[in-house]
Design a protein that fits this description.
GO molecular function (chains A, B): DNA binding; DNA-binding transcription factor activity
Protein name (chains A, B): cAMP-binding protein
Oligomer: homodimer
Order of helices and strands of chain A: HEEEEEEHEEHHHEEHHEEH
CATH architecture of the largest domain in chain A: Sandwich
Number of domains of chain A: 2
CATH topology of the largest domain in chain A: Jelly Rolls
Organism (chains A, B): Candidatus Terasakiella magnetica
CATH class of the largest domain in chain A: Mainly Beta
Largest sheet of chain A: 4 strands, antiparallel
Distance between the termini of chain A: 53 Å
Keywords (chains A, B): DNA-binding, Transcription, Transcription regulation
Largest interface: A-B, 42 and 42 residues
Pfam families (chains A, B): cNMP_binding, HTH_Crp_2
Chain lengths: 229, 229
């Protein structure tokens, strides 16, 4: 049974135990089922959520229901700061990927936490700067790369987080085509086609429990050449 | 002659006069010519810049030199907070649009300003939240709209800031095709083609000193229909 405590939340690292214990009591605690919606875009809630167990996915939906994944967050992270900070409607929807225990902190408590502990405010600022950098890269990719090259760039990104050798990586479990599609704003079919092409050319090899990525340096060159058009 | 003072910077609004005067002395002041580069992407400078006079453009360049405009900033705004906050290389390049007077504040002074004045920190947080929201919309547009509809969406955006009547707007001066192209990640030629099409259909009418946009409600519907695919 997972304990209802914020002691492993990165944002709060180093705060005194009594402050953490007080915050624990000021949050609403709730278990979410896999695929359950946590935040509805355009909703006017302003709570900040801390992930104590499980994973969540940040998504935006087009009017027609197309799903665009912005990011996945895991244990120790938080989400929902944006609406808490600017008071505007939620900028994205959030759903649980698997069963998740979340702590919802009311907006006024979150803001007083920032004012009272500059280290927390600094971490929130750094976190937002990171999101802006990632967004800029994505805008650049969307603006300059075709769908095939966006798949290559995404596989490379995942490979770099899972290097097993100088020029090789092992991504486990095997990335799901529709997940990649959602992340790079393309379709499952396009991703499947590009992945088959990469397998044929020897860049990826499917295993039972994961995907081997090879010739990473060459793949990097390919992406950068197209990016430069 | 513009005075070298930060008193009209929005971020610092409400700070005591003696704090402003001290900050004035702690900045490096410089005039930039039109089109002069202010920040080079990937440079390791960490100053924060305040715009006392003039306008600047935030851009990212692809390896091949394609220019993607992220935003234009004008008097009273600041830029360069990202590298000051996270210490990483600049996320974008910045150049002067016209002759501009800027104050460059050293990173340590900026960070102590945030810690010492929570209202300033809160404004920086709000500002970054705004940038993230804009980026999300742009990612959504790039992911769901074709180039023609991105032009429509951009014209609508500018029209809504310049309404003259319930269903009509006047954008002055006439938007430059290459500027629109840079902003929506398309070419000058594509923009020209789409704008001619809009003129033929009666949505825009070119005047000597500006662009009339008509039937804004209908144009909005057109954009939303495509966005929903």
């Amino acid at each position: 049974m997972t304990q209802q405590t914020l002691e492993n939340i990165n944002l709060l690292d180093g705060l005194p135990t009594d402050v953490i214990e007080e915050l624990n009591k000021q949050c609403r605690w709730k278990w979410y089922d896999a695929h359950e919606q946590i935040i509805d875009r355009q909703a006017d809630s302003t709570d900040v959520f801390f992930i104590v167990q499980g994973r969540v996915r940040i998504v935006i939906y087009t009017v027609g229901g197309k799903e665009i994944t912005l990011d996945d967050f895991t244990e120790g992270k938080q989400f929902g700061e944006m609406a808490a900070i600017d008071g505007l409607p939620r900028s994205a929807s959030v759903m649980a990927i698997d069963r998740a225990l979340l702590a919802a902190m009311p907006q006024p408590r979150f803001m007083s936490l920032l004012t009272g502990h500059p280290i927390v405010a600094e971490r929130v600022l750094k976190n937002m700067a990171h999101i802006i950098r990632i967004s800029n890269e994505r805008i650049m990719d969307l603006s300059t790369l075709g769908a095939a090259n966006r798949v290559h760039a995404e596989i490379l990104r995942q490979a770099r987080e899972n290097m097993t050798d100088e020029d090789e990586a092992f991504i486990s479990p095997i990335p799901i085509h529709s997940d990649i599609g959602s992340r790079i704003s393309s379709t499952r079919e396009t991703v499947a086609r590009v992945m088959n092409d990469l397998a044929r050319k020897g860049f990826v090899e499917r295993q039972k429990n994961g995907l081997i990525v090879k010739n990473i340096e060459l793949l990097t060159q390919m992406v950068e050449e197209v990016r430069g058009d």
